[in-house]
Structure formats: structure tokens, C-alpha cells
Design a protein that fits this description.
This protein is of the alpha+beta class and 477 residues long. The protein is built from 18 helices and 13 strands. The strands form 4 sheets. The protein has a 5-stranded mixed β-sheet.
């Protein structure tokens, strides 16, 4: 069993709160001796773990197994006898999997996966919680989706799309009608097993029932709780994480058989909406932009404003620069040349940090030089070169912002968000080059199209941010 498999065995099945020592003991059973510092570091960044109080943790499996949620199949889905997962199992299901990977049961009856067509507008609604910029790529990853180039999206989307869905016939035969809800709860988080049942709704009565009042109470509670979370958690890393934290903290109020559905709520609320968050989107207060600095981070925002600066020391980033220098026959006799290539001049380190970085760079140079093959790297070299140009530019800009000591609250907030996101997205390209080169080669056209958009975004925010820094310094003289 690999370390990843041993970790997932614990994290995908543990339902009770646990300590770092518990996780360490589990790994030790599988012959992996990991220090507590490494364990804490891993758990702090793990996307299927919540940090609790007193150095305790809870897995997503523990938080979401057995919790009720629901969704309402659209009229189009009911007419076609097939419904689609989309974002509807978010955040209850493992975020590493899309909705079509769920294994549904209606009572004891397994619900079969069936391909089906749906209008693109309906598909985008069903995938809306993935956020702007992600919905279409996620749709394209569906195995039933007839491939079309992501780069062709600029010329218009197809009217219909073929996706992997679930057979609605067993529900229809049991009396399901349009307007009814499908109630769900996860039974086995590791294997994406979700139990479902029909919740009948009144379709013609003019009288308000107790169930109607319970649903409206749920929507009011959801809205109130979500508004309260903004100042505490901020925009989080994704809409999925926003919802996960909300459900974790309010599951006693929100996860019952009278629950409403999140996507229906987003269609009807007047207090919340999808707001721009750089090149992404988040659930936020209606008609209000998400700031870079807010109540959740203003106390320490100017001390460590850009987590993406840590990417400079990531092995895959260093490896990308080394391959670039070898491929372009640039001088690489020592770590000093590589250091100057990677780290912006305005960044400063302590003597200890500099020594540690230089030793690490030397080790990576030795390793990569022995393994590098210019011939096999040829399909990726040109694309990597373009990605690294933007990576250096965005990191230099972020370093200048940090070095300026201008309070971040005085700078354009969306531009700051976009700078951090562009850095992270470009770094993700480099990671793909180094970890899954075959995938990167196959997706090169779409990757370069996306990169072109990021370059345009960078050009716009660079001028804006540098001008804002200059103006702020002039005022504060």
C-alpha cells in the first residue's frame, strides 16, 4: 500500500474527530514513519479535512455521512427521464469526483448511469456552483460529453451537450412528478454511495402546509447563516469550500428531511449571488464585490498577503526552470544562476533561508541534469517557455507589491485577487508539465488558449497596481 493509499484509507473512512497522533499511528501501522510536524502540515492543507479546536480534526466523511440534502430535477430532465449530478451533491460528496461518479440507490435499488442530452443552458445551471471559469471545463471532463475544443468556446457554445446522467424511470414509476424533490444522504463517502428517496410536494393546493413553512424556514436559515460566514471565513478557496464550512457548522439546522436545495436557493435569494472573485466567482452579498482584504484577514493581511509566493520553492517550479535553462542552453554552472532566474530581486531572505534555498537548488540541478532528455521534452518545451515567461512576470509584480509596504487595503482589491489567482493557475500548468506530461501534451492547445487570457488579465492588472502603488506612496510622503 502506497503512502497515498494508506492516507486515503484513513481520511475517506474515519467518521469521528481525530488528532494528528491518530493519523500518525495509522500510517505507522502501514510502515510509514512521518513526523508530527509533517502530519500537521499535511492536515492543514488537506482539502478533505476540517480543523477543529484543541488540535483536533474531522474528515469530510465524518462531517457529511448521513446528512440529508435534496435537489429538484428540472422539467427537461423529467421529460427526458434522466437527471444529472452536476453540482447537486456538493459539498457532501468527495470533491475529487464529479457528480456523475456518484453511486445512487433508490431504497435498495441501484440507479444506473445512462448518457443523455440536455440543453447547454440547463447544463450550466446544474454546474453553476463550480464557479465561473470552471463550469465548462468540468462539463468537458464528463466521459459522455462529445469532445469540442475549449478554445472553440469563444465562437459560441453548442445548444445541447451529452452528459452522463442517472435513470429517472424508477422514480417516475414510484410516483415522482415534476416539482417533487429527491432527498439524498451519503452512506459510504469513500465509494460515493448515496441513498435517495422521493419527497412529494403539493403541486396545486393554494393552502400553505407545514412542509411549505419548513422549507421557507430552511431558506431563511441558510441565507442568514451564509451571510454570517463571510466575515469569519471570507471567500475561501472555492464555492465548494464555502458550502462545506457552512454545512459543517450549521448541519443541525440545515441537514434534515425538510431541507431546501442549494441551487434553488441561489435562484431565488435577493441577498446573495455569484460575485466576481478575480477570474473566478464566489457566493457573496448581492451586488457587492469580494475584497482581497476583509474582516477575516485584515489583522495579518499585510504580513503574509500572497500565499502564492511559496510556489517559488515548489519542486515542480524549480524543475521547470532547470529544464527551460538546459533546453535553451543557458548557463547553469551553479545554483546562483538558477536562483536569479526564479526569485525576484525585491524578495529578501535571511542568511539561513538563503543557504537552505541554495542547497535545495543544487540538489535539484543534479537530479534534473541526469534525467533530462531534450528529445522527449520537445512537445512541452515551447509551451513551458511561454508559461514561465508569465510566471516570472506575475511573481515579479507580486514581489514589488510586497516590497512597496503600501497597505493592501489601499490597492485595487480585484486586481490583487487576480494577481494571486493568475500565479496559482500558471503554477498549476507547470505542475501538470512535471507530474502528468502526457496529459499536458494532449491539452496543450487548450492550455495555451487559457494562458493567452491570463496574459491579457496580467497586462491589465500590472499597470493598474503599479499606478496605485505610485499614487499611494505619493500621498503618504
Amino acid at each position: 500500500m502506497t503512502l497515498q493509499e494508506a492516507s486515503e484509507e484513513f481520511l475517506y473512512t474515519r467518521l469521528e474527530p481525530f488528532s494528528a497522533q491518530d493519523f500518525q499511528a495509522h500510517l505507522k501501522k502501514h510502515k510509514y514513519k512521518i513526523s508530527l510536524d509533517e502530519i500537521y502540515g499535511f492536515l492543514a492543507t488537506c482539502d478533505v479535512v476540517f480543523a477543529l479546536v484543541n488540535n483536533m480534526f474531522l474528515t469530510y466523511a465524518g462531517a457529511f455521512t448521513g446528512r440529508w440534502f435534496c435537489f429538484k430535477p428540472s422539467k427537461e430532465e423529467v421529460e427526458k427521464g434522466v437527471f444529472f449530478g452536476g453540482h447537486r451533491f456538493m459539498p457532501f460528496m468527495n470533491p475529487a469526483y464529479q457528480g456523475f461518479a456518484a453511486n445512487l440507490y433508490f431504497g435498495e435499488t441501484p440507479i444506473y448511469h445512462v448518457p443523455g442530452t440536455i440543453s447547454m443552458n440547463q447544463a450550466l445551471d446544474i454546474y453553476a456552483l463550480y464557479g465561473e471559469g470552471y463550469s465548462i471545463p468540468v462539463i468537458l471532463e464528463d466521459p459522455s460529453c462529445e469532445p469540442f475544443s475549449f478554445s472553440s468556446v469563444q465562437y459560441g457554445l453548442p445548444h445541447e451537450v451529452r452528459l452522463t446522467g442517472f435513470d429517472l424511470k424508477p422514480y417516475l414509476e414510484a410516483g415522482f412528478e415534476y416539482g417533487d424533490r429527491i432527498l439524498c444522504r451519503v452512506l459510504d463517502w469513500k465509494n460515493n454511495i448515496i441513498q435517495t428517496k422521493i419527497r412529494k410536494e403539493k403541486h396545486s393546493s393554494l393552502k400553505i402546509s407545514f412542509a411549505d413553512m419548513a422549507h421557507e424556514e430552511w431558506y431563511s436559515t441558510f441565507e442568514e447563516c451564509m451571510l454570517q460566514k463571510f466575515d469569519r471565513h471570507g471567500p475561501c478557496n472555492s464555492i465548494q469550500q464555502q458550502l462545506a464550512l457552512l454545512i459543517l457548522e450549521e448541519q443541525g439546522k440545515l441537514c434534515n428531511e425538510d431541507c431546501g436545495s442549494i441551487d434553488e436557493f441561489m435562484q431565488h435569494t435577493t441577498q446573495l449571488g455569484f460575485s466576481q472573485y478575480g477570474i473566478e466567482s464566489r457566493i457573496w452579498r448581492y451586488n457587492e464585490s469580494v475584497p482581497f482584504v476583509g474582516e477575516w484577514n485584515k489583522q495579518y493581511a499585510d504580513q503574509a498577503p500572497f500565499p502564492c509566493l511559496g510556489l517559488l520553492s515548489a519542486d515542480y517550479v524549480i524543475t521547470s526552470f532547470i529544464k527551460e535553462m538546459i533546453n535553451r542552453k543557458e548557463k547553469l554552472d551553479s545554483a546562483d544562476e538558477l536562483y536569479k532566474k526564479i526569485y525576484p530581486e525585491s524578495l529578501s531572505f535571511t542568511d539561513f533561508e538563503s543557504e537552505f534555498i541554495m542547497l535545495h537548488l543544487e540538489k535539484r540541478i543534479d537530479i534534473v541534469k541526469k534525467e533530462y532528455n531534450r528529445f522527449t521534452d520537445f512537445p512541452l518545451a515551447a509551451g513551458r517557455h511561454q508559461v514561465l515567461i508569465l510566471f516570472r512576470k506575475i511573481m515579479n509584480l507580486i514581489a514589488k507589491i510586497t516590497d512597496s509596504h503600501v497597505p493592501l487595503i489601499d490597492l485595487p482589491q480585484q486586481d490583487l485577487i487576480m494577481a494571486n489567482q493568475v500565479a496559482e493557475h500558471v503554477a498549476a500548468f507547470l505542475e501538470e508539465f512535471e507530474t502528468v506530461p502526457e496529459k499536458a501534451e494532449n491539452e496543450m492547445e487548450d492550455m495555451m488558449t487559457s494562458l493567452s487570457g491570463m496574459i491579457d488579465s496580467f497586462d491589465a492588472i500590472e499597470d493598474s497596481l503599479l499606478a496605485a502603488i505610485k499614487h499611494a506612496k505619493k500621498i503618504n510622503r
